[in-house]
Specification:
The protein is mainly alpha-helical. Helices cover about 85% and strands about 0% of the residues. The chain contains 22 helices and no strands. Helix 18 packs antiparallel against helix 19 and helix 20 runs antiparallel to helix 22. It is found in: Cell membrane.
Length: about 500
């Protein structure tokens, strides 16, 4: 149980680093939806969706390659140095090209040139801190990692509050005063990206000492090995971007232009109600990847992975049920404007999809450990094809709008999860307790969907609360020995 305890501690620490910034970030959903119409919020969502793809390209799998070679190579300084030099110069090249052709890029994306300029610099600063952040995780410095992550989001949040909520009042109170010179009517989208840019710049400044170290080394042979290992991660990342964010872009392109951005705004706002599952999944992912690599040499590693996956499913199933049951309560805190609630029907679907993605993360460890990351790219590509195909069929052919996008997301992540499991059984057998895992998974999904989609049960919460109590008791009854053992060891 020592390995499991180590993972638990690491996940909790990174959970704090992830949960606090995400909670602060999600508070912005309430601010944005309170102060912006669905159309403006939808436009921000679409712009951010495009940026996700550029983020993936700028990292080109180097983050995962860094972890792999950091634990594999004896000369760790050489790994850090080579990865840093690579990201630095690729980012400089990106800046030169995109700034030179920003007008063309703005035309292709149908986005204001000024917003494109903001996006370019945000992407560059974010890329330059990829290796420094990864180094903190590899060296097990979660406190410093947490402080830097949290400071970025706090600055972003404070600037959003000031620029969107306070500055307009100051400017309107004194039209000829000092603050009016900084206020531009109808510039809400620009202010959101300006706040993001300043926060990204601040984080880069915190990491500048990393770039001013003497004697930077660049091992070409090591670099080529890292690229070979990482390039499938790039394609997997692009496929992930398709699965996770392309639906917003497709909705904006395939729906009626008069309604598209408003629909994307409602969809994106209600999408965020899946906050807790996203937080759980993200914290788990941050902790699990370096841990899996560090345990790879142990003889009992497969059993450790199987146990970890089972308890991830158990805890995730409980979170899924609780969040879905109380989704109508959460919306009053996260998305307060009723005009956005039209998309509430997608909430359980998105939570289930994010849970499937978390399970896939656990199941995908095998191809990373045997250095076959290309398999992950193929699996993600299958998910991407499913995403594109089902979005087209359900949005265009069946006119299901964002409900179709949510269904496509579940199908994509569910397929990836199943494919990874069956391929892993042959390439890297892990003794998963599939009967228990499937029982917990489908029981929570069934109870959650019944409590949400049956109107009379949804209105009273009685069924949902009883379902949570019953499911919790079922978990305790089946896992009593392990639960008590963990409590005693603490």
């Amino acid at each position: 149980m020592s390995a499991n305890k180590s993972l638990l501690k690491q996940t909790l620490i990174y959970g704090i680093a992830t949960v606090l910034p995400r909670v602060i970030s999600f508070l912005l959903v309430g601010l944005h939806t309170d102060l912006m119409p669905k159309v403006a919020y939808g436009e921000i969502t679409i712009l951010l969706a495009y940026m996700i793809f550029f983020n993936v390209i700028l990292s080109y799998g180097m983050e995962t390659a860094f972890f792999r070679f950091y634990h594999k190579q004896e000369n760790k300084k050489e790994v850090v140095s080579t990865a840093t030099v690579s990201i630095f110069w690729s980012t400089i090249l990106f800046l030169c090209v995109t700034l030179l052709f920003q007008k063309t890029l703005a035309g292709l994306l149908n986005v204001d040139k000024e917003y494109v300029n903001y996006a370019i610099w945000i992407l560059a600063f974010d890329a330059l801190v990829i290796i420094p952040f990864s180094k903190l995780r590899a060296e097990q410095k979660p406190i410093k990692y947490s402080v830097f992550k949290i400071s970025n989001v706090i600055i972003n949040m404070l600037l959003n509050v000031f620029l969107l909520a306070i500055l307009p009042k100051l400017a309107h109170a004194n039209p000829q005063g000092f603050w009016s010179t900084f206020y531009f009517e109808g510039y809400q989208i620009g202010y959101v990206f300006l706040a993001n840019l300043i926060a990204s710049l601040f984080t880069f400044i915190l990491f500048m000492p990393h770039y001013f170290q003497p004697n930077w080394l660049f091992d070409k042979e090591l670099w080529l090995q890292m690229l070979k290992y990482g390039w499938p991660i790039l394609f997997a990342g692009l496929a992930f971007g398709i699965n996770e964010h392309l639906d917003k872009i497709l909705l904006s392109e395939w729906l009626d232009p008069a309604k598209a951005k408003a629909a994307v705004g409602a969809y994106s706002a209600c999408y965020k109600i899946g906050l807790f599952m996203v937080l759980f999944r993200t914290a788990y992912t941050l902790g699990i990847e370096p841990f899996f690599f560090s345990q790879a040499g142990n003889a009992n590693a497969p059993q450790t992975y199987a146990t970890i996956t089972k308890y991830f499913v158990i805890l995730g199933s409980l979170i899924l049920l609780v969040v879905v049951v109380f989704a109508d309560v959460v919306k009053f805190f996260l998305v307060r404007q009723p005009e956005y609630w039209e998309a509430m029907s997608i909430v359980p679907l998105i939570i289930i999809a994010n849970f499937f993605l978390g399970i896939y993360t656990s199941l995908s460890v095998w191809y990373k450990l045997i250095d076959k990351t290309i398999i992950g790219a193929y699996i993600s590509a299958v998910g991407a094809v499913i995403t594109l195909s089902l979005n087209y069929i359900l949005i265009v052919k069946f006119d299901m709008s964002y409900v179709g996008s949510a269904i496509a997301t579940i199908c994509a992540y569910g397929s990836m999860m199943v494919i990874s499991y069956y391929l892993g059984r042959e390439k890297y057998p892990i003794p998963f307790e599939m009967k228990k895992i499937l029982t917990y998974l489908f029981a929570s999904i069934a109870l959650a969907c019944i409590s949400f989609y049956v109107d009379i049960l949804r209105q009273t919460f009685i069924f949902g609360i009883l379902a949570i109590i019953g499911f919790s008791y079922y978990i305790y009854k089946n896992e009593k020995e392990v639960i008590l053992r963990i409590i005693k060891r603490k």
